[in-house]
Amino acid sequence: MSNLKKIRKYLPFDGEGTILLGYRGSLSHGTYIPKKTDDIDLIGITIPPIEYVFGLRRFEQKEVIEGELDLIIYEIRKYINLLLRNNPNVLSLLWLDERHYLYRHELGVRLVEARDIFISKACYKTFGGYAAAQIRKMNKEEYRGYMGAERKRMVDEIGYDVKNAAHALRLLKMGIEILTTGEVTVMRPDAQTYIAIKNGEWPLEKVKEEAERLNGLLDEAYVRSTLPKKPDFHKAEALCVEILSDYYGLTRKECIRIWQLGEPSTATR
After folding, report:
1. According to CATH, what is the number of the domain 7-116+231-260?
2. What pLDDT is stored for residue 143 in this prediction?
3. Which residues of 229-266 are buried (b: 16+ CB within 10 A; e: fewer)?
4. DSSP states of 87-124 as a string?
């Protein structure tokens, strides 16, 4: 599934308008364990045909789960809004190692180059909150996706969902790093720790103790952080307008004139 030609058929608008596409999850973190707990996760950004921006049609995202593939593609405005919330699932796309991008249009590269405007202390709540959710899910029977049966077997054997546990600790560590350095380290230098957890080498008590320790460090990092409280909304909005107008080959005045022809409704195709 790593071949771009094979993936194209799953992309919205037959891939036309895709400006960024890359791996997410364990493949991007260096913690992928094939045929055990992990799917092949992909995330991307698309710019839809012009009628989806100025007309009556609507598109926000497309999700595909088929076999080992778990794909999600966001419309650019939806994606940028998630960035402004410091959503961990979308933020990482702008900090991938080069080898983990499957496709980069020049407009996608422009978004990557402007990634610092989205970094803020808001990551304290989002990364910490997502980590807490993973801890809560460790003992729930939710085994969806390609390797759901294998995950269930491991829970029965070990006593908790190792994938949720690894996600939780990684999210806490990444949150601490962002608050401290302003950088998102997607490819994990501590990958072997999370691989060990997913292999069932950590007892549940050790996971809980480490989560408590990291939560304390996250609190400290938040207090000491010099990052802005929120991302720069105005710069993000200006970037979005610039990318869309360049993609459609329109000036700002032309965009406004088209928009004024009629306010788009929520009607769908």
Report:
1. 3.30.460
2. 55
3. eebbeeebeebbeebbeebeebeeeebeeeeeeeeeee
4. -HHHHGGGG--GGGEEEE-HHHHHHHHTGGGG-STTHH
- The end-to-end CA distance of the chain, in Å, is 30
β-partners of residue 69 are: 40, 66
Residues 6+ apart with CB under 8 A from 111: 19, 20, 45, 94, 239, 243
- What is residue 269's DSSP assignment? -
Q: Which residues of the chain have pLDDT under 50?
A: 1-2, 262-269
If phi over 0 gives left and psi between -120 and 50 gives alpha, with beta otherwise, what is residue 35? left
Domain range summary for the chain, segments of one domain joined by +: 7-116+231-260, 123-224
Ordered DSSP codes for 1-57: ---HHHHHTTSGGGGTTEEEEEEETHHHHT---TTTT--EEEEEEE---THHHHSS-
Amino acid in position 27 = L
Q: How far apart are CA 184 and CA 227, in angstroms?
A: 13
pLDDT at position 254, please?
A: 73
CB atoms within 10 A of CB 81: 17
8 Å CB contact between 94 and 118: yes
SS3 category, 180: helix
pLDDT digits (tens, 9 = 90+) for 204-254: 999 999 999 999 999 999 999 999 999 999 999 999 999 999 999 987 677
Amino acid 129 reads G
